[in-house]
Design a protein that fits this description.
There is one protein chain. By secondary structure, this protein is of the alpha/beta class. It is built from 3 helices and 8 strands; from the N terminus they run ββαββββαββα. The protein has helices spanning about 35-45, 105-115, 160-199, and strands at about 5-15, 20-30, 55-60, 60-65, 75-85, 90-100, 125-130, 135. The strands form 2 sheets. A 4-stranded mixed beta sheet has the order 3-1-2-8. A 4-stranded mixed beta sheet has the order 4-6-5-7.
Length: about 200
């Protein structure tokens, strides 16, 4: 199950009239822990925003996040439905929260209905509110930290074969380093044994 964290960052933004303004922004991050969420935010934003601090990290109760590329406005939606307790047989109302990208509340409602069209149980969309979240940072498997002006091979127009070759070369280099470390460890052990024999 995906765990979403809201990370609030603060930094000084220079406006068009050259005035400095303290800015606070929220980003939603898919991460496994609070530390991982901080790391992903720094990794994603450090190239575009300089000298920011993460002032707060909090776990959210979002069960789903639906991204649409045509807009950057996010709406927090509350879904409500009835569930029957297996032991007591009593009905209780369950609420779930979801985040969806849409240009306006009406579109958010329609998109959410489309996303939940496969639900068997009847539900109500009880709340749709605009969210202060600026961007969603999803989890990307095999994510690598790249420094300076380095870019992943796929981003510089390389073919799939070039990408696979680069991965293979990296694996071979890693194996060679491991072999060197093993050799050094073995030599160190032999020297230690010789010293102990002399004593």
């Amino acid at each position: 199950m995906t765990t979403w964290f809201i990370c609030t960052i603060q930094y000084i933004k220079i406006l068009e009239n050259d005035k400095a303004k303290n800015v606070s922004e929220q980003y939603l991050v898919d991460a496994v822990s609070f530390t991982d969420a901080e790391t992903r935010v720094y990794r994603s934003l450090s190239s575009s925003i300089k000298d920011f601090i993460i002032s707060r990290v909090s776990k959210t109760n979002f069960v789903d996040v639906f991204n649409y590329e045509d807009c950057e406005i996010w709406y927090k939606c509350k879904i409500s439905y009835l569930d029957v307790d297996e032991h007591s047989g009593k009905e209780k109302r369950i609420s779930k929260y979801m985040l969806i990208a849409a240009p306006n509340p009406r579109e958010a409602y329609d998109r959410l209905l489309a996303q939940l069209s496969t639900w068997i149980i009847p539900f109500d969309i009880t709340d749709i509110n605009i969210s202060p979240i600026l961007e969603v940072i999803p989890y990307v498997s095999g994510e690598e930290v790249l420094e300076g002006n380095l870019k992943p091979v796929k981003q510089i127009g390389a073919t799939e074969a070039d990408y696979e070759k680069a991965e293979l070369e990296a694996e071979i280099e890693e194996e060679e380093l491991e072999e060197e470390e093993e050799t050094i460890d073995a030599e160190t052990t032999e020297i230690g044994e010789e010293d102990s024999e002399e004593i």
